[in-house]
Design brief:
Chain lengths: 185, 53
């Protein structure tokens, strides 16, 4: 049990960040059986730091770091990684039943994002999926706004280059074949 | 046609399913972290399954 005062103070702070933090968790852990456990672990770890940390703004970076580490550890096993990819694709398809091509493109996009350097991936997802501002991301990453802009710009360029590899006008079946060959690597 | 990553990035947040709710978080926070107990059978099954990972 958490002391009521601490729980209230923590929740008052956390509620302001909940939506953006949960979006980040979804973008990183969608498809993992332990997705909610990872979020819960990050939140409870931040709660344990609540009384120790005077600068509460560091807590968000702390939670995001825990999510990154837990996702990385969970995906060390090739078997789990393969199941994660299949489940992520299944969940995106279930979310977009009328738009299978978009679901597949998003799955491919997430696959390409997986391959980005960690700091770039974090900055890109915090900006585009969570909706944090460049200034807020700079605070989270303990960096400058210029460095965050560079990371995001490099990440976008890398994604564009990845997608340009199949820059021909392809029928869906052909694209499926290419994506399948990439995913089975 | 090659997909445009910027357009896909804009579609991604809405395509991601909703995660845990604020109500669930309130419950997690109120309960705190469950105390870990040592279960010999759980430990043994993890050791046995470890090479399969």
């Amino acid at each position: 049990m958490t002391a009521p005062d601490t729980a209230t103070a923590f929740m008052t702070w956390y509620a302001l960040h909940h939506e953006r933090f949960s979006r980040y968790c979804r973008s990183r852990a969608l498809g993992l059986d332990s997705a909610d456990d990872i979020a819960q672990d990050a939140i409870l770890s931040a709660l344990e730091q609540w009384d120790r940390l005077t600068d509460k703004s560091r807590l968000l970076a702390y939670m995001i770091g825990i999510v990154n580490n837990r996702v990385r550890n969970s995906l060390r096993s090739a078997r789990v990684h393969q199941r994660f990819l299949e489940e992520r694709q299944r969940q995106l398809s279930a979310r977009l039943p009328a738009r299978p091509e978009l679901a597949l493109d998003l799955h491919y996009l997430l696959r390409a994002i997986d391959g980005l350097p960690e700091a770039s991936r974090e900055a890109l997802l915090l900006l585009t999926v969570s909706g944090f501002s460049i200034r807020e991301i700079a605070e989270i990453q303990q960096s400058t706004e210029g460095a965050v802009k560079t990371r995001v710009s490099r990440a976008r360029r890398q994604l564009r280059e990845t997608f340009d590899e199949d820059g021909r006008d392809l029928p869906l079946a052909e694209r499926l074949r290419i994506y399948a060959s990439i995913l089975l690597l | 046609m090659s997909p445009d990553p910027d357009r896909l990035l804009a579609e991604l947040p809405a395509a991601l399913p909703l995660g845990f709710t604020l109500l669930e978080v309130t419950d997690w926070v109120a309960r705190g972290r469950p105390r870990r107990r040592f279960h010999a059978l759980v430990w043994l099954s993890r050791v046995i399954r470890w090479p399969l990972n």
